[in-house]
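Researcher: Going back to the complex we discussed earlier. I've cleaned up the inputs and rechecked each line, so this should be the final set. Can you rerun the prediction on the complete assembly and write out the structure?
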Amino acid sequence: MPDRYPGYDVLSKRNTASWNDASRQVIDARLAIVDSPEFFDERKWRTLRAICDRIVPQPAGRAVVPIAAMVDRKLADDHRDGYRDARLPPQREAWRRGLAALEAAAQARAGVAFHRLMTVAQDALLRDMQCGRLDGPEWDDMPADLFFRERVAHDILAAYYSHPVSWNEIGFGGPASPRGYVRMYFNRRDPWEAAEAKAGHEAAARDANENM
Amino acid sequence: MTVESNQLHDALHVPRGKDGRAPDPLRVGGWMPMREYREDEAVDFVIVGTGAGGGTLACKLAEAGFSVIGMDAGAWWRPLEEFASDETHQDKLFWTDERICDGDNPLKLGSNNSGKSVGGSTVHFAMVSLRFRPEWFKCRTLLGYGADWPLDWREMWRYYGEVEQALKIAGPVTYPWGPKRPRYPYRAHEINAAGWVLAQACEAMGIAWTETPLATISAPRGRAHPCVYRGFCVTGCATNAKQSALVTWIPRAVTAGAEIRDLAMVGRIEVNDAGLATGVHYQREGQWRFQRARNVVVAGYAIETPRLLLNSATDRYPDGLANSSGLVGRNLMAQTNQGVYGVFDDEIRWYKGPPSLTLTEHWNYTDTGKDFFGGYAFMAQGPLPQAWVSTQAGNRGLWGEALLREMQQYNHQAGFKIVGETLPQERNRVTLADEKDQYGLPVARVTYSLCDNDKALVKHSIDFMSRGLDAIGARDIWAEEDDTCHLNGTARMGDDPATSVVNADCRSWDIRNLWICDGSVFPTVGGVNPSLTIQAIACRTGDRIRQLAALGEL
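Model: Rerun complete. Updated structure for the full complex:
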């Protein structure tokens, strides 16, 4: 994927009027998350990491966002969303059960652990989960498609898009308080917003982003 | 997350409305004096919940000279110091305690429809402040569906005016639909690109649009400066431009002598042998306590209100309080919230400014060309990244490279979402589950299914909005088919005790000193955001209580 906002780093605004102290504290803490499990055991941790790599394939040559650790912390704190589909158990149990069931499916299909599968085989299993084509006693009446949508995709993507690296990727402005924005109309960019690379003008965008 | 600063979560653990003082949210580190009542002293009113309903009513009653305590399960925040520009962190404003959802269309709760803080959901609402279409107050008689309200629209029109002044709503000079209304107190906000997309689509389709009347100030007000278009409105306003109950009704209430108790979860309303409410059992600082009161007002919104009434069942009222009609918890109406989106060559950057700066109420005020009852508004959108990925993944099932590619179009994306009317159905309801929450109280089970009329409305809206986007050259148009927003119903008002829970004054038919004042009392929901109507009803209820007291009829 081409770099749409070359040189843009939302963290470069950390010490500007766009970030209040509260935002600095919150983002600093997020960036300090250690890439190891507190909630999951080693086996489930390996499965979770492999799933995260497929749901959000992160580009090489860039600092890796510890998505699995962010999901793990949500469960360690049992930080819930405020609703639960009646067909699902509470989130900790759903994750434990879903990861074990996915491992069982990998073993049944290929005789190896999920994280050792080729990525195409991992994707095929995840698609089967998404379409509700996985079942068996390990699922214990928990619908695989619902687990995929409400837990796998929901928790993993919420974690990734809470990280500044993802904001750089999509050109989001990030924290904005007390300074907000001034230029509201089409194609108007405040000097503290990401500059998009237009064909033939990538260097200009990089220059603008690096000198924000 | 464990590693996040505890300081920013202090308010969740240590009550602030205590020892004769209350936080002043408009000053960094500020306090204001607050009157305190003893627990064994029966106050005139204890109000459960301090959002659009309870916060407004606490203000009105305190200003009328009544002794008032407002209780809220949530924290008393100081936005200037404690609100980060961050979607994840700010879910501290949401009601994230477990609720179990079933039915054909299980609801998603917690973020866009449930608040847990002093000020309630108004602390994180999108500030859209619309009046009901007058006919909706008599929609059974005039439009042939739903149930009539026991309120007269002309009276409501006056109360809408009162709330619009109290919140200094910023809105257009003339409003294109409905009877004449006064000018909005503050001028409309500048329109962002996402808002202009809606305007262009409406003009291409030949319908009217306007700047959205918003509860965020467009000029200075007291210590608050105008909205700076940071775009994090639905995660809490860190500059206090947003005119939430937290910075408007609550400080007014405290100044007028009300006491507000934060982190106070009410679990049961006590009823005596005469069948009258005598006060509330509430948990604060880890202990169950009891506050005596001459009147109890329930203002917990469409899930917590019926939950509390059901959890307060006694031998005398085995089906819960105020429930002789059997309608407590029934007729839950979650407004539909479908959207359409497309990609533009232009940079939109829809994260800037309030998310819904323009809207159209065309299909609220037009009755021809519809194959369904009810109406809908649709509005410009500006989702932040987590909300947007949730929409993409939840509705299109995207993940992996395909999802990352779609997300890269973020700044070129625009779209509209409806606030769609749903019909009252008795099967859509709140009941009690076996599971218990952290207070030891049974959690709510929320059962929800759309009916054919609701689905026809959604289909009409998606078709119309898609054609609108197509007409102005959007690419890759797609529809978000599955979302809902505001909750109402579950304790409807009416003229007949057999078919309603409260009367026009929000007074329960069964227990004369028990009142309900929030979106629960709506017999129907219309196609607009409910907060302005909830506040208008609370203002009216406050006036009615004063009149009833003067007549000796309390």
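Model: Worth noting: The domain at 7-550 of chain B is CATH 3.50.50.60 (FAD/NAD(P)-binding domain).
Researcher: Good, that matches what I expected from the previous run.
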